[in-house]
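Subject: Re: docking follow-up (adenosine-5'-triphosphate)

Dear J.,

Thanks for your patience while I sorted out the input files. As discussed at Tuesday's group meeting, I've set up the holo structure prediction with adenosine-5'-triphosphate included as the bound ligand rather than trying to dock it afterwards. The sequence and the ligand SMILES I used are pasted below, so you can double-check that they match what you have on your end before we go further.
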Amino acid sequence: MAPLLQMTGITKRFPGVVACRDVSFAVEAGEIHGLLGENGAGKSTLVKILYGLVDPDEGRIEIDGREVRIRSPRHALALGVGMVHQHFMLVPTMTVAENVALGLRSDRPPLSRLRRVAAKVAELSQRYGFHIDPDQQVGELSVGLQQRVEILKLLCRGAELLVLDEPTAVLTPQEWQQLRGTMRSLADAGKAIVFISHKLDEQLSISDRCTVLRDGSVMGTVATAETDKASLARMMVGRDVVLRTERPPRAPGRPVLEVHGLHLNAAEDRCLLADISFTIAQGEIVGIAGVDGNGQRELVEVLMGIRTATTGTIRHEGETVTRLTPRRYNRIGAVIPEDRHRMAIALGLSVRENLVLKDFCRQPFSHRGITRPRVFRDFCASLLQEFDIRTPSLDVAMRQLSGGNQQKVVLAREMHRDPGLLIAAQPTRGLDVGAIEFVYRRLLEHRERGGATLLVSTELDEILSLADRIAVLVSGRFVALLENRDIDIQELGLLMGGASEMVAS
Ligand SMILES: Nc1ncnc2c1ncn2[C@@H]1O[C@H](COP(=O)(O)OP(=O)(O)OP(=O)(O)O)[C@@H](O)[C@H]1O
Ligand SMILES: [Mg+2]
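The structure tokens for the complex came back this morning:
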């Protein structure tokens, strides 16, 4: 019998790159098929072709043995192919049922249609264990639940093949466990799932088979039960990857950043941060562990001068800097913010402009008010090489880079100048294993040279391998501030536990 999906000889060229090169790829009904590959390997392009967002230059697509030319997402859905976008397409002020009903074609009057949709949502939610109430407002749902609403939307439109492009980047470990359950029950019911994730543990724990892409070509398809992390990493990168890091002992020096009694209140006196105190010394990495949404973002925004603390003090090298602005922060430190699209890059500007965004008016890039293009060019070229940024040229718009390569541009811009103080929020989100290895090495080199680092991460492994001290942030407060010696991942998880309960409820 023909597979549910068969893509054969798919090639897609963009100016200066071949994103997919003679790719053949098949997915069976009832199968979870992982898609793996380095940043820029062509994963997103391949699934965009399948969803009618990108037109291939060559190749055939067959669904249930019938050749199709997929012209648009609407057409893809009509053929039973659905895709969950990383940035959700939901209207927060509407209910779940209203969101699902949006855009559905029907001849019925709106109200009776809504009732039917609500019943359908309840039925599907029951069948696949989604725990979603059709009458709940979408804006009140956690990220994990919103993602389920996106999946429900596709199921209500009759999707038989679901494409999930890095769905877990925004999920807590608990939410990932729930998504995993959902994916399994969908597959057991005969649906097929294409699952893109850089996290090898996730691929190994859920996918039936994995296809690995490198530079747009298929390196192979393997049964997940017959492979392991190291061999998947090798297939992706073409060499062995060090998946563990050594953090040599180091005596911290003078304090660089001292935060004392920081409070941040929002409107209606809602408390976002309460009584946050810590210091970071030279040569020290302080990790902030916690479930997303417990004040990490607010803390980083206060430290980088986007928000002003309600009370409390911040000192940098002994000088009080509580009333920082982003421009002033830029003089004392570097920052890799979590939400890179909103705060770190300009998608419409070129890669070059994004790389020099913070440096262009300084020496040696500009001299007596006149910018020096040649200096820019050499500087950018060396960053591309050092940070392994895959782009056809420096002049392409940032939005044409793959997700991971956009992140590398931010890392390069912020880390190259060897800042005394570095705030790194989710620095490895969206990166492939080789790039993660590189970032870890750079962070440890920064520490070695006496730099101070605040590492905010929801990845406990990351915190445990890099941080000297770990603060656990729950509901805007530190519930613990510990030396990273005698603590393990279970204990950290327990400390964060209060928060995860809250998020889940
Ligand atoms: N619209 C576009 N215009 C020009 N080039 C593009 C466009 N979309 C993608 N590319 C290029 O195609 C290649 C593959 O990109 P793609 O987004 O498919 O990678 P990916 O495997 O999803 O990577 P990541 O893991 O970083 O998300 C990259 O070199 C990228 O720069
Ligand atoms: Mg991608």
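A couple of observations from a first look. The first strand starts at residue 5 and ends at 14. Residues 14, 17, 19, 37, 39-45, 390-391, 400-405 surround adenosine-5'-triphosphate (ligand 1) (CB under 6 Å).

Let me know if you'd like me to rerun anything.

Best regards,
T.
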